[in-house]
Design brief:
By secondary structure, the chain is of the alpha/beta class. It has 2 domains: 6-24 and 261-338 and 379-421, Aspartate Aminotransferase, domain 1, CATH 3.90.1150.10; 27-259, Type I PLP-dependent aspartate aminotransferase-like (Major domain) (Aspartate Aminotransferase, domain 2), CATH 3.40.640.10. It has 12 helices and 13 strands. The protein has helices at 27-39, 46-59, 70-80, 98-105, 124-127, 150-160, 211-221, 248-279, 316-329, 346-349, 376-384, 398-413, and strands spanning 63-67, 88-92, 109-113, 135-141, 163-167, 175-176, 179-180, 187-191, 204-208, 285-286, 294-295, 301-305, 385-388. Strand 4 (135-141), helix 6 and strand 5 (163-167) form a beta-alpha-beta unit. Helix 2 (46-59) packs parallel to helix 8 (248-279). The radius of gyration is 22 Å and the shape is globular. It binds pyridoxal-5'-phosphate.
């Protein structure tokens, strides 16, 4: 049955107010943040130390350092891996920008590898061809809450003497072969930005099981100072460091959210399963998958529109934008998280970092080219996708997923009406 799309003046499929905002704030958050405020130590205080211990215990790591962002934790990972100027770091061509710019922060050179269409993560088959004598690290990004194939990436790394850094910023609680992300590689980074499944406003965590990685990361984290846990500060910068420490108020918020995280993740799983069930078989849609041996957290429920089936391969991105607008008009809370692949971004195309072409012209670096044409899978994904976070998140339950599915089905079943849109 044909229904008039909301974007053309028809009624909305998802009534206003159906989808609630993330994150729900409760008494635990209020009490813990206020206790920190009244506690008198607002910089790296007791909540920071407790947050590190509790997060390490939750994830199954020996050590954790809390930071003021996930990007800071990623930069610490590269320092911990012993990277130096001109070293190459392998990064998926489709991810958040700082999965790659963390390499630039350490004067290293990002080298991109295409993704696998089904998992949207680094394609392990394509990594080997990108390894050179300069390669030091593979960054395994667990995008959208689905673990990358860490087993195969670690096997490639081991064969070439490389380190594996896990970017877990979107994947708190995701597992591969029953083991949590952040416990596979040499070290890993988590983010606690507002949109992540563990929200502390902003913030991050560096984790590792190796004491040497810990101390290298620690030096970078706090002004290049190095000291054993038993020593007092001597306020001496032994090497170049940054100020990446977390603060007590954010850590208190993070600790409160950590207590709720398993419940949030369980609810997301139920909501995503309901959404997948209701969207199954809808024409023109490619639903996200959860491959065997991997547990998805559904941080982001990413749909791809099958532009081949919809006969819009030639103008995929423009047609996708039209569908997204139509979905939003129906009240579906979907967003375009990232329309660019990384190698096409200006920072890489214009080598827009430290000026004078640095770090790419560093005498220790090998010349590297960024040709977006070399990443056809990432480009196809970038042009065909849209993603949803809010409808699956607490405090929303399955009714939000049901309303969302109704809105998506309505647009897909009446997609010919989009021809009337300019
Ligand atoms: C959010 C995110 C980051 C960066 O985390 P911040 O806390 O915002 O610095 C890095 N990588 C991925 C994949 C992310 O989603």
């Amino acid at each position: 049955m044909s229904e008039k799309l909301a974007i053309l003046g028809g009624p909305r499929a998802v009534p206003a107010g159906t989808i609630k905002d993330w994150p729900p704030i409760d008494q635990t958050d209020r009490e813990m943040v206020l206790a920190s405020l009244d506690g008198g130590n607002h910089s790296f205080g007791p909540n920071c130390k407790a947050f590190q211990e509790e997060f390490a215990a939750w994830n199954g790591n020996r050590f954790a350092i809390t930071t003021n962002s996930g990007t800071a934790a990623l930069h610490m990972c590269l320092a911990a891996c012993g990277c130096s100027a001109g070293d190459e770091v392998i990064v998926p061509a489709y991810t958040w920008s700082s999965s790659a710019t963390c390499a630039l922060h350490h004067n290293c050179i990002p080298v991109f590898v295409d993704i696998d269409f089904d998992t949207m993560n680094l394609d392990p088959d394509k990594v080997e061809a990108a390894i050179t004598a300069k390669t030091k690290v593979i960054i395994a990004v667990h995008l959208h809450g689905l673990a990358a194939d860490v087993e195969r990436l670690l096997a490639v790394a081991e064969a070439h003497g490389l380190k594996v850094v896990e970017d877990c910023c979107q994947a708190h609680g995701a597992t591969f072969a029953g083991r949590k992300v952040g416990t596979w590689g040499h070290c890993a980074a988590f983010s606690f930005n507002q949109n992540k499944c563990l929200c502390a406003g902003e913030g991050g965590m560096f984790v590792t099981d190796d004491a040497e990685f810990l101390s290298a990361a620690q030096a970078l984290w706090s002004f290049g100072e190095t000291r054993t846990p038993l020593e007092d500060r001597d306020y001496h910068a032994y090497a170049l460091g940054w100020m990446y420490r977390n603060n007590d108020l954010s850590a208190a918020f993070g600790r409160a959210e950590l207590r709720k995280l398993d419940g949030y993740l369980a609810a997301q799983k139920v909501n995503a399963a309901r959404l997948s069930e209701l969207l199954a078989g809808a024409a023109g849609l490619i639903l996200p998958t959860e491959p065997p041996r991997r547990e998805h957290t559904w941080y982001n429920y990413t749909l791809r529109f099958d532009m081949a089936a919809l006969a819009h391969e030639a103008d995929a991105a423009a047609f996708r934008d039209r569908i997204v607008k139509a979905l939003q008009a129906e009240g579906v809370r979907t967003e375009l998280w990232q329309r660019f692949i990384l190698p096409a971004m200006t920072v890489f195309q214009a080598r827009n970092a430290y000026g004078h072409g640095c770090p790419w012209v560093c005498p220790h670096a090998r010349p590297v080219e960024y040709d977006p044409g070399e990443f056809p899978v990432a480009r196809k994904h970038a042009d065909w996708h849209t993603g949803m976070t809010t409808p699956l998140r607490a405090p929303n339950g399955p009714t939000a997923a049901e309303a969302t599915a109704r809105g998506i089905r309505k647009v897909m079943e009446n997609i010919d009406q989009l021809d009337q849109l300019e």
